[in-house]
Amino acid sequence: MPDPEPPTRHIEQQPLPGHTENIPSDGSDERPENHRLEDAAPTAGPDTKPGTPPGSQSDADRTRAPD
Hints:
The protein is built from one helix and no strands. The longest helix has 5 residues. The chain is elongated.
C-alpha cells in the first residue's frame, strides 16, 4: 500500500487582493510620485483627524487659566 501524499504539498492559491496590484512587470519598484502609498488623503486636516488620545491635553486644557 503506497504512502499517502505528505500534507506539506504545495497548493496554488489566488493572490490576496491588494498584495499584487500595481507591481511593475519589469521588476522595478518605481511608482509615480502621485501614487505613493504613504501619501495622506487630500482632505485630511486637523478637523477630520480623530480625537486626542487618552492622557493627552486638549487645546482647552492648554489654554485654560490655572485654578
